[in-house]
Each structure stands twice: as C-alpha cells, then as structure tokens.
Amino acid sequence: MVGKKGFSPKVYGYYKVEGQKVTRGKKICSRCGRGVFMSDHKDRKTCGKCGLTEFV
C-alpha cells in the first residue's frame, strides 16, 4: 500500500523474523523505553525522541 499516510517501509528493518522467532534489529532507547528505537550511525547510536547519544 504505497502512498498511504503514515506508511513507512523502513519499519520492516526494525525486526528480523527467523522461522517462528522475532528479534529486534535495532537497539531500544534506555531512557525512553519500549517502542523507541535508536538510529545507527557510523560511530554512534542516537535516539530521535530524547536525543540520547551512545558512542560505540
């Protein structure tokens, strides 16, 4: 359903399905909690909601 408001195909990269098991592909923000993922950069992970940055 391309073109629908609120549709993000990138959300499929947040989880990985292996057989009957689902695992998270991205780290969850330790400050915001469940449901908020951190973005991956070359040298850090950043939360888009609260701005928390963890350097790798």
Architecture overview:
By secondary structure, this protein is an all-beta fold. It has one domain. The chain has no helices and five strands. The strands form two sheets. The protein has a three-stranded antiparallel sheet, with no helix packed on it. Strands 1-2 form a two-stranded antiparallel sheet. A hairpin with a 5-residue loop joins β4 (44-47) and β5. It is globular.
By helix and strand content, what is the structural category?
Answer: mainly beta
Main beta sheet: 3 strands, antiparallel
Helix content: under 10%
What strand line-up does the widest sheet have? 3-4-5
Tally of structural domains: 1
Relevant terms:
3-stranded antiparallel beta sheet; mainly beta; 56 residues; single chain
Summarize the structure.
The protein is built from no helices and 5 strands.
Layout of helices and strands, plus pairs?
Elements lengths: L14 E4 L2 E4 L13 E3 L3 E4 L5 E3 L1
Antiparallel strand pairs: 1-2, 3-4, 4-5
